[in-house]
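Worked Example 4.2. Consider the chain below.
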Amino acid sequence: MTNFLQKIKSEDIRSMFLLVLFISIPFSIAGDDFAVIGLYLVTFYRFIKKEESWSSAPIVYGMGVMLLGAFISSLLSGEILHSLSYFRNFWRLGLPFLIFFAFRNRPYDRFLKVLAVISSLIAIYAVIQFFTGLDVLRSKSLQEEYRAIQGVWYAVGIFSHHLTYGGVSLLLFALFLPNIFSQGRSRNERLLFTVATICNLAATGVCMGRSIWLGTLTAMGVMILVYLGWKRSLIFFSLLAMLVGGFWGYSSTQKDSLLKSTAVGRRILSITGESNPDRLFMWKASLQVIKDNPILGLGPMRRKEMEPYYVRITNKEKHQFQHRPTVGVHNIYLQNWIDFGLLGMLGYLIWWGTLFVQILSALRQGSKSLKVNAQLSGCLAGLCGIMVAGFFENNFRDGEVQITILLVMGLSLVLLDKHKTAA
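Applying the procedure from the previous section yields the following structure tokens:
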């Protein structure tokens, strides 16, 4: 037994945890967390054995600034221990580096293909769910919770919330899309990624999340910009704007009739429904909180402190909130400012911004590796899309979406490193 254990290499164990992670991304936060813990342990072991070496990345500084802001806001929040308890939610933030260490000197393609297959199967299930309400894992009461007024079910895959599933599918769609056109891929690989792209695009549609739709369109727009360049993209977007404007200016009777004939159209028309004033008033309350606490915010875990602001709006605007402060303000940027203060919010933006600058610089320079160029554009598109969706939801606080974001960030670091060696 001892001899057998001695023959097992840490790299093989890491491969097992990576496989669990890539399989779990589309449907299991428990599997994700198990894999991340395993990757931490293996990576620490490899550092102790001097089989791994540190390589810094600019995103570290943004992360550090955000954590410093959260720490300062916690210390001065009035309930120090309660606010500091939020730090347990930061434990996954090392995942981009775990991914980087794992794939720095080895290929990642087979794991990406596993993710393509698994996510496609879940997406097919989600489409069936959308039309039939089939849900083999949850109770009838939870199923009915996501029965839309448009007469269809909000597809949630195997998650518990439609925006969680939509956020993950958005990122995977963008990650797979450029592989369809990459000349560095074989015919069979292109076919696999074509199926995965279509399935995950369909999943973003059937989740019925308008923020997800907007994020998906943003991801597509970024891909168009990358492949067509500024001039041709400007022409394309101008023509598209005229087409959409023409449709929107068309006879309102005909337009409404056309939109009302589909579930997606009815969902678009519901933009004036109850959930939207609710979101606008939540943002209004958030801005009042920030106005009163511009530097430190309220500190993490201080949602009760927002109640007076909600009450004030209820009394003034006669609006009954659907969502209380305990569920967040449905805007990740306002939420970070409220919880982590100005420094924490700026750190969050620096974190993402430095990665975007690196990717854009690499894409501008180009690389001898066509696969690296294509995959980098997919990472950029997905992260841009999820950032836009974040204006309407607390998506980075959602465990499943957060892990997928961190995975894409980790792959970005790997690709940037490969870009340097292949340039």
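Confidence is low (pLDDT under 50) at residues 1-7. The CA atoms of residues 23 and 115 lie 6 Å apart. Compare this with Example 4.1 before moving on.
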